[in-house]
Amino acid sequence: MGKIKNRIRRLRFDHNEMTQEELANRAGCTRQTIIALEQGKYVPSIELAFRVARAFGAPLEEVFLYAEENNEIDNPTLPLPKQ
Amino acid sequence: MAPLQKRALYSLVIGLVLTIILVAVLVTQGDITAFDRNLNLRLIMYAVFIGVPLINLILMDISLRKPTQLDERDRLIMERSSKTQWLAVIFSLVAWTITLTEIYRNQGQVPIAFLNLIFVSTLIISTLAQSIGILLGYWSMNRNG
Questions:
Q1: Model's pTM, two decimal places?
Q2: Of A74, A72, A5, which is closest to residue A37 (Cα–Cα)?
Q3: Residues B90-106: what's their mean pLDDT?
Q4: CB spacing of A28 vs B67 below 8 angstroms
Q5: Taking a C-beta distance cutoff of 8 angstroms, is the pair B49, B41 a contact?
Q6: Residues β-bridged to residue A68
Q7: What separation, in Å, do the N-terminal and C-terminal C-alpha atoms of chain B show?
Q8: By the CB < 8 Å criterion, does A42 face chain B?
Q9: Is the CB of B73 less than 8 angstroms away from the CB of A32?
Q10: Mean of the pLDDT values across residues B69-78?
Q11: What single DSSP character describes residue B104?
Q12: What is the pLDDT of residues A57-69, one digit of tens each?
């Protein structure tokens, strides 16, 4: 079973310690949803995921990662495995 | 606390206060026929008929229009809470039906005041159940994700 992970906390830090409130305003959601996302307690819709990524000016796959069980992906910039 | 969560809490408190008032009125007046005899009681009841849905509309809808106040996660919790609301309303109506049928079976008729009481209790239960459903939804989502 897979799991959606995200790098929101890290990206906020990289963006001048952007506050959760500011990110929420940019992404058009509540601060509580940002908290839930950071804690991995909520998986966003595709639309919200795009809005969050856009708030950071980053592509979607840089913010959200799909990690399969026993095959965790920590670095989204890693090349895809050879077929 | 999310804006919807806060409002659910306010709504729960209002619902509980109305329940206490309703029970207190019934206890102090003796029985259900007080509503037939007393116009003021009926007027209060009619005010509750209009007031409860109005307060619910203001708390849960009109005051939560901005996306930073109510987003997809809140809407998901709200949708799930409607199941709790529906179940609570159905069970309360079943309880009313069975109770009144068994008590008034021999008379063959139910006092008309019960119509008002059934409606007002359903309104209050619906509001309470929605608030409880929303609060449980947040609790569950924060706990299990």
A1: 0.79
A2: A5
A3: 94
A4: yes
A5: no
A6: A2, A71
A7: 16
A8: yes
A9: yes
A10: 89
A11: S
A12: 999 999 999 877 5
